User: Fold these one by one.
Assistant:
Number 1:
Amino acid sequence: MQFIFFGTLFSGLLLVCAVTNDIEDASGETPGIVSQITEEQPHQRQKLYNWDYKDLGTIAFEDIPFPTLQPSQTIDQSENCPEGWIRYSDSCYWVETELLGFAKAERKCSEKQSTLFVANSIDEWEAIRGHSKDSFSSWIGLVRFSHYERSEQLPRWQTEGAVNPSKINWLIKPYSPLVNGWSQLANCAASYKSPASLETASYTYFYPCTYLFYSICERNSTIANSLH
Ligand SMILES: *[C@@H]1O[C@H](CO)[C@@H](O)[C@H](O)[C@H]1NC(C)=O
């Protein structure tokens, strides 16, 4: 009985696939247009970010396509941040509590017109990492790419003007990549927030970028509005 059921289901799936293929074939130009958009879009990202889709395509990352850029509106957060966001200076921050790999976390921020959290001062770093969820690690916008390993000792923040990464709370100080978990397969930095009673036990460490963590997004109005 079960066997027959699965048999029917399977041929049903085959039929669906066949129909879908027919539709795609019939739609002529569409696939061409789609690939054109996905090829152009990373180029626009390069102006703003310290890394782009080519870096994200290395083995330690998931190679996922980015959404098409929305026609962006001017962001005015001089008064308030959107509901659920945290405010610090001219930036708004979103604590993402869906468990995501680094590349998906970055994309999720991008969909909210934000980047992963980049600290422009140690005060900002302390204030914002303190809002991430207790006893969890959260992705931040800090990566040491294997292909820059020879030329760069320090990891790269996602946007310009950030603090010297060696000054933040690495697990092992003074900072060096290897003692803090970095390897060819562990490029992405995450901030671990210890429970409040053990605050000094919070730290930053490198992990494989495919690990599933929380994440912190930052929408810096200066950066967001420099896009247009
Ligand atoms: C926002 O970005 C600008 C330009 O990089 C920077 O000077 C400023 O410190 C940032 N503000 C915050 C709160 O991150």
Number 2:
Amino acid sequence: MKGSLLLISSVILLTDVLSGCPPKCLCNRFLKTVDCRNQGLVEVPSHLPAETQILLLSNNRIQKISQSAFVDTLALKILDLSNNSITGLLPGTFKELQHLQILNLTKNFIEYVDNKTFSSLSRLKELDLSSNNILSMPGTLGKNTGNITLLSMKHNKLQKVDRLLLESLPNLKVVLFKGNFWQCNCQVFGLKLWLESFLYRGGISDSIICSAPDHRKGKDLLRIPYELYGICPPTASDVHQANALHYTSEHKSSPKLAHHNEHGGDSSRSHCEPKPKPRPVSLRHAIATVVITGVVCGIVCLMMLAAAVYGCAYAAITAKYHREKNSSGKEKRSLEEKESFERSLA
Ligand SMILES: *[C@@H]1O[C@H](CO)[C@@H](O)[C@H](O)[C@H]1NC(C)=O
Ligand SMILES: *[C@@H]1O[C@H](CO)[C@@H](O)[C@H](O)[C@H]1NC(C)=O
Ligand SMILES: *[C@@H]1O[C@H](CO)[C@@H](O)[C@H](O)[C@H]1NC(C)=O
Ligand SMILES: *[C@@H]1O[C@H](CO)[C@@H](O)[C@H](O)[C@H]1NC(C)=O
């Protein structure tokens, strides 16, 4: 009786700790909000209530976020980590947050963004990476991030951003670029084209102000005429692609495919390339066929040989039998003849 009471009370105590509010935080059970702002925290508090949907951690001194920091708060919709001291994000940190819609990382010291860090956040709508030290953005944020409507990259150390990254976010409404080290050389051409089309479709953006080369410093990317960018010298991959194009158009003589190849990347090229793989397969088939045929022929030959031997033996035996039978018959007959001859003589 006492033992079970103790058990019950300890269970109650445990659940209280588990679903309770971490020290230094204010929890609102009805709004499902945990507010830990301005508390000088150096890490994400553990034992957060599992039903938390809004977690406010701004204005603290969080430097590192462990991979398991959010494994108990799977219902999170808004996560505010702004104004902390985060220097990097492990690729799996936000992996489980399937309901996250707003992620605010502004005012930290992030230098590097991995292409896996946000890749599983399929509900993510707003991603604020402004005011960090980001040197380059990945080529993609992952194929599940297509719901992003706001992306802020302003006030970082970016020199360029891949047009493919922006093209992979079809629902983008607001994109912010201001305050970076934009290089307005021939490579920025794709970004200019994308931005013009984005603004034409009603997208909202601030301006991309060039910081290099020197003669374009302080100028707006959109106001520099196309002619002035110059054409980038072909890179090694361009040459390779051109060769592949030449090869396919020569060997397949399909103008549609070749045309597609010009615009598509690696994926479309792999469709057009001549397929070297079937050859070993058919070779293997041929070898198998030869082997099987050989075995079957061998068996048939052996059977024929056996039949021939058997036939010969049978023929020999029957011949011998007939000969014996004949000779015994002849003896009989000659005996009878002899008898009848003797009788006739008598
Ligand atoms: C950022 O957080 C610090 C405390 O860590 C605070 O003193 C400062 O005012 C905050 N900055 C802003 C802009 O809120
Ligand atoms: C991120 O937080 C800052 C304040 O810390 C705020 O000004 C900004 O609007 C927030 N960004 C988003 C996308 O909500
Ligand atoms: C992610 O980036 C790495 C190199 O940083 C690259 O090898 C990989 O292909 C990228 N993944 C995707 C899905 O783009
Ligand atoms: C966008 O979000 C919806 C749910 O709100 C989800 O079903 C869908 O898969 C998401 N789209 C992408 C591209 O991940």
